[in-house]
Design a protein that fits this description.
Largest sheet of chain A: 7 strands, parallel
Number of helices of chain A: 14
Strand content of chain A: 15-25%
Helix content of chain A: 40-55%
Radius of gyration of chain A: 24 Å
Oligomer: homodimer
Number of strands of chain A: 16
Order of helices and strands of chain A: HHHHHEEEHEHEHEHEHEHEHEEHEHEEEE
């Protein structure tokens, strides 16, 4: 199952030719998918889920191949854990597909319908976007999750995973694509780039004649590369430099718990908090409590001069810290004079992802909610809730800090566009 | 009024510095605009409209300056007419602003509100996009129309018009910006690039730290330049290669009138028809009638071999014709065997703008509506209706053949993004 694909060392010409063929097939499939019924799409998703459970042994064999190489290459335990598949994880991947079946189909919905004075009926109808490219890093489950969500919304998908998961991703893709095609899915609807060369990504990112959208998922370096190279629209977030502003009227006990949760529950995620802004009037009272509380949770704290005047043993936060997504149990702390200064700091240093104000003052909350220019702005809650599942979307294909098309967690509706269908009986202008 | 601006011949450094300052001011203004009330924004728009009528003489003097240069440079009568302002046209521009006042404010609307099982209330709220760049060609009215629409939706705008209209655009912008600022509009909310150098456009298109969207309006050359140079998302249409498919069951008398309207009513517009596809079973009967009908309206016709077998004096359509937007009274004609072939032709050669099927067969209509991958797809009507006004949007900032964010005519709601405002009382994960 992992034999009939190309690996690295392929000529530039061959790469170009393979990618263009994939693009053409995907585009052709996308027209058929756009016209497929919800029942058809659900049948294909179920066939995929069943096939994953049936072919688990083959998938695990391919994964073992990746794991051995990864160990030889000295990947960290955390990376190995991300890469690793076992029967339970494959079952979870299959179950996630069955869950997508239960979600409402976002395509072919009449979003609005108006009859104009001249009798023209104008229906605005949701339609799939077309062909979507997903570029991601090590977790093999993304292969199936992303394919399932794109397919449910009626899109064809071209996948490109991390090279360390190459054999796993090939096995997963061949399993689900062949099972779904046997159930009637158009050929080319779900494809994985069958080589690990970086040159293949460069070709993909220029195929704007076939692809309508690229969604990169991974670290900032990967995403900047994609944005710089792509001629296709990209929806992305670079990083999550999320803030919590401790306003003077906040419930201090509650604030400690929210801050701990936002930093510690999963520090490696993009919606974890990186910077605390503390309102001057409460800093002398609040900071010592916070310092003791977070120290006990093994959080490293760095602060500005005002913080260090209160807690001399605290490390120093330098300019660079305010831009930094630590992705670990480290946090920067700054004292601000006002909600205005907090908002200005966030709009300047933040990443437009998720920011929270802790306050009992409704006016301060309203000002913060309105002026902070981020995808998700919170009052009295942890930033960790910026997530498709937590938002009740049922599933998430990614998170956007862009302002066009989709912002914040992206679910199935964000994988659609719309068209106007106009019904006349001879109208002319 | 037209004295205190830079013209061409400015150093690259100076251009960079002027543009960056404009960007900073616009970004700062955009935060205040996002928080402005509908009443405020309407008051500013009315102040602009009144100022245009009050300052008509100054505006016409600046326009005269442009007109004289344009005549010296030998611009065509059509171009001169586009450029020309007179008291009636200035009044129309002012009236268009007063019309924008009557339109609903698209910002700060709760698009959805859900309460999660943990008690978090998640409001999805429309917000302005931020700073929008508008790059356009000769008509000076676009300066005011675009500024008014961006402002009503709460966006700051940086305008760049055609160099031939430079003095007119400067006069218009200074008039409306100073009047609105006197009425309380934030400084920097409406700005025009005060120089004609192309280098200024290149700088603007890279200022993604300040601008969130570029809308180019003009010919294909201008738009390709913008897309190639810009690091900011662009919403655009390159051209309108629109089709009408004459299906065998159509009402032939009605079809003649629709085709004539779509070609002749305003041949220079993007929603005029460029290619007719005629269903083989009716071509022998329909084509001679059509040929006589359009010949009388002075339409030049070019056809494929099947057409010329019926009408030998018809010119020959070559491959290039199927891609061509004539923008004049010329049309290409091709015979197709089926609705499938018509759809394939349109999806291959078309521009994704507006396409129409003329038919009495509901199944053929449905197939065409679903499979043609264009912004607006019609049954039994002229393609000329793809227009914000005709769609009942009240106003139009442009037309998009993109699939992300906005497709088809773009009105005020398309000038907004959204954010999530999340209300908690201590929720943690």
């Amino acid at each position: 199952m992992t034999e009939n694909h190309l690996t690295s060392g392929v000529s530039q010409e061959e790469i170009q030719s393979v990618l263009l063929k994939m693009g053409r097939q995907a585009k052709k499939a996308s027209y058929l998918l756009a016209n497929a019924s919800t029942e058809d799409k659900n049948r294909w998703l179920l066939a995929m889920a069943d096939a994953l459970e049936r072919d688990t042994d083959l998938i695990l064999k391919a994964n073992l191949n990746d794991m051995e190489t990864a160990r030889k290459n000295g990947l960290s335990e955390a990376m190995l854990d991300r890469l690793m598949l076992d029967p339970a994880r494959v079952r979870d991947i299959a179950q996630a597909l069955r869950h997508v079946v239960t979600l409402p189909d976002p395509a072919n919905r009449i979003l609005s319908s108006t009859v104009r004075p001249n009798g023209l009926r104008i229906d605005k109808v949701s339609v799939p976007i077309g062909v979507i490219g997903i570029i991601y890093e090590s977790r093999p489950n993304v292969t199936v999750d992303a394919a399932g969500l794109c397919l449910k919304a009626g899109n064809a998908v071209i996948l490109r995973g991390g090279s360390e998961a190459f054999h796993s991703n090939m096995a997963l893709t061949q399993c689900i694509a062949s099972a779904a095609e046997a159930a009637g899915m158009p050929h080319g609807a779900v494809q994985l780039i069958p080589m690990t060369d970086h040159a293949a990504v460069s070709v993909l990112l220029k195929m704007d004649q076939y692809l309508s959208l690229i969604i990169p998922r991974g670290g900032e370096r990967l995403i900047r590369m994609v944005v710089n190279e792509s001629t296709i629209p990209v929806i992305k977030h670079y990083k999550g430099v999320c803030h919590i502003f401790v306003e003077k009227t906040c419930d201090q006990e509650q604030s400690l718990k929210i801050i701990e949760n936002a930093k510690c529950q999963r520090p490696g995620t993009c919606n974890a908090v990186e910077t605390l802004l503390i309102h001057r009037p409460v800093v002398a009272e609040f900071l010592p409590k916070l310092y003791a509380y977070l120290k006990e949770k093994n959080v490293e704290m760095v602060g500005d001069a005002s913080c260090r005047a209160i807690i001399p043993e605290m490390g120093e936060a330098v300019e660079e810290d305010w831009y930094t997504e630590y992705l670990c149990k480290k946090i920067s702390i700054k004292v601000v004079e006002s909600v205005e200064e907090a908002v200005d700091h966030i709009n300047h240093y933040g990443s437009g992802h998720s920011d929270s104000i802790l306050t009992q003052d409704e006016k301060a909350a309203e000002y913060f909610l309105n002026l902070v220019d981020s995808a998700a702005v919170y009052v009295n809650a942890s930033t960790r809730f910026t997530d498709g599942g937590e938002f009740g979307m049922g599933a998430e294909i990614g998170i956007s800090t862009d302002k066009l098309h989709a912002r914040g967690p992206m679910g199935l509706p964000e994988l659609t566009s719309y068209k106007y269908k106009i019904y006349g009986n001879g109208q002319i202008r």
